[in-house]
Structure formats: C-alpha cells, structure tokens
Amino acid sequence: xxxxxxxxxxxxxxxxxxxxxxxxxxxxxxxxxxxxxxxxxxxxxxxxxxxxxxxxxxxxxxxxxxxxxxxxxxxxxxxxxxxxxxxxxxxxxxxxxxxxxxxxxxxxxxxxxxxxxxxxxxxxxxxxxxxxxxxxxxxxxxxxxxxxxxxxxxxxxxxxxxxxxxxxxxxxxxxxxxxxxxxxxxxxxxxxxxxxxxxxxxxxxxxxxxxxxxxxxxxxxxxxxxxxxxxxxxxxxxxxxxxxxxxxxxxxxxxxxxxxxxxxxxxxxxxxxxxxxxxxxxxxxxxxxxxxxxxxxxxxxxxxxxxxxxxxxxxxxxxxxxxxxxxxxxxxxxxxxxxxxxxxxxxxxxxxxxxxxxxxxxxxxxxxxxxxxxxxxxxxxxxxxxxxxxxxxxxxxxxxxxxxxxxxxxxxxxxxxxxxxxxxxxxxxxxxxxx
Length: 435
What we know:
Layout: E1 2-9, E2 12-15, E3 20-22, E4 25-28, H1 30-37, E5 43-51, E6 57-66, E7 69-73, E8 91-97, E9 99-105, E10 114-117, E11 132-140, H2 153-168, E12 178-183, H3 192-195, E13 199-206, E14 218-219, E15 222-223, E16 230-232, H4 234-238, E17 242-243, H5 256-260, H6 263-271, E18 277-285, H7 290-306, E19 311-316, H8 322-335, E20 339-346, E21 367-372, E22 376-379, E23 384-387, H9 391-394, E24 411-414
Parallel strand pairs: 1-8, 2-4, 6-23, 9-11, 13-18, 13-19, 19-20, 20-21
Antiparallel strand pairs: 1-12, 3-4, 5-11, 6-9, 6-10, 7-8, 14-15, 14-17, 16-18, 22-24
C-alpha cells in the first residue's frame, strides 16, 4: 500500500476575499468558511479567530484539533465519518503543514476539554502552541448538553472536520513543496533481507470506555468500544481512518491531528528495512470490565504472534482504569516472547509520590513516560481569551476546579487540563529528570 502526502508549509494565515494558498500564506474567506460550519443546523453561533505562536492569547475550552487536508486521489477525507466508507491509506493526500483547526466551545466545556496558551510558560506545555491555529469558536442550540459529559462536542468536532477539509481543498490542484511517501508492501512480499530483520508491531490503545455513542474514538466511523483489536496498515492511520474521541481527560487525549501525524509510526517507517521489519499497527481499545480487558489483551497477543512480531511498542491513550488494559497487553506480549516498550503518562499526584500506574507488573520493565497528569501549574493572565475562560472552573473541565480561575485571569490548574500535552504518540519534547 502506497500513500503520498503532499506537504504545503504554511508560514502565515490571514483573512481575505478568496480562500487560497500562495507563497506560504493561507488566506481564508471567513464568510464562505462559516457557511461550511453552519451546514449543521444545531450550530447557532460561530466565528473563526486566528491565534499564532507568540500571541498573548489563551484558548479554552478546546475540544478537538484537525490538520487542514484534502484527498486528491485514492479515497475520501474522514471515511465513514464525513463521507462514505472507503479504504484509507493509498493515493495522494495534500496537507497544510503548520496550520491547525481547533474546535473551541463558545460558552460551555466539559472535563474532556483543554487549554492552550500561545505564549508564556503555558505555551511550553503543549505542542499546539507552535501551530498557526484557526479557531472555530461556536455554540449550539442543544441546551440539554450543558448537563452531560458530551457538552456539544459532536456538532463542534464535526464542524471542525468540515472546515479542515474546506481549507485543505484550496491546495488540491497545486504542486506540493514536499511529498512524503509511505510505501509498505504486504509482509510476505518483502525482500528476504527485510524479513530477516526483527519484526516490530505498533499497538495503539484507543480510548473507548463509554457505552453511549459519541464519546469514543472512531475507526472508519465505528465506535472503538464495539470492536476487538484489529490489524491495520499504518497508512490507514496516517490518512484519517481514526478519529479522536471526546471522553478522555484532555492532557491524555490523542487528537485527530496527532493520529494523522503520529511520530511513532513515522519513526517505524524510517527504520523499516534498516534496523527493523515494520509489521503494521494493531488498533486496540480500552475497556471497563475485566473480561473485556482480558479478551482484548489475548487478541493483541494472537495478532502479534501470527504476524511474527519480535518486538512491540504499546501506546496507551489515557490513565487510571486503562492502565489495567495497558499492563494486560504488556504481560501477554511478554509471555509470548515479544520484547515490549510502553508509552504512557502517569498519575502520580501533585507531589509525584503516588503509584504511577493503577496496575503494575515486573514484566513492564521498559516504559517511556510522557508526564504527570496531576502536576500543579500556575499560569499568568493573558491579554486575550478565545472561548470562555470561566468554563475551566465552572464546567468541571479536567485540571480545573471552582476557584482555579482568579479575578485577574491567572490560573491554578493541573496538567490534566492542558490540551493533549502528554502526547503519547511522541510528538512533544517532555523529558524526565531525576534530581
């Protein structure tokens, strides 16, 4: 399967008469873009606001992040979600690199929503402060959702996807500045010298713990709660087959932007044929019941052994209850003779002294940590807020509480509320230092 991603490197975003891309500048016709947003009748208020690196701007509650892209050949954008169900992962896709569509609540948030600072100390805590952010700030007529976890997320997230595709279409007929090629043939068709290298599989555990529709990650539009672990081609993930859910507290969440730019997958591609034989991706889920956790772990083991894996990277989206799924998979793979490295964040308390994972095992002897969700943070006020700052305290957003927003606009919060800050896909620059 061969996927080409044509990259256009955006250096600035402005508003203008025609949505277009030229010489590194993305120009947006705001009214036309908002017409795309308002295709959902539930959206009653909407605006597009630009936020750039270094701006004295705070954005919250952020619900989703999507890279502006368009499909040139070989399928559709967001298959099974915005468009009909077609295979992803082949043909040509164009991407506006360095730009990002953020779906932001205008009035109400939820515990799964996060905060982004574009400058100051908060900007160091999320990679999304480094992008040219096109903030879709919107509200809906669904007043009842103010009292539910979902908090208008579907309407705003789907509108964000429509907006991202609309923007991406402006480069559909243009020649990209760079073309990345991801070409991974079937395992049995690979040269002998490649097949003799250690076989490595990537296991990504998607957040899928809610029984109700609308919360969990989607795979080709299918709720990950209703699937068993599945072997997928890595190109499918890089081409939009997986859509972020809206359940996980925000620092632990993997946004749709991060799924299509997954650095771990790209690193495995880079090493393929040199040091490893990249076998593919096992897309797994995170469950609540012990029997479900055990079943998924067994499926992961069976898939990994059937394709001849000798090594595995296991990425967990989330913490707490999902730690049991994470450790169960590590145990099963290790028992099968497969060497495992895990990637996860931790919940060690504000002082860092609590048990890092809910479940532990001596077999989990190689884990990359991406941060402590409970880390206490103080942030100074910002000149401007996009969205609604009081949502952090009023609506039970993860990381916030009553009194966490001060009268001068400064904040006391936990890392839990920083948008996708722990980034278990590996695209951020946190490290652990022992003093």
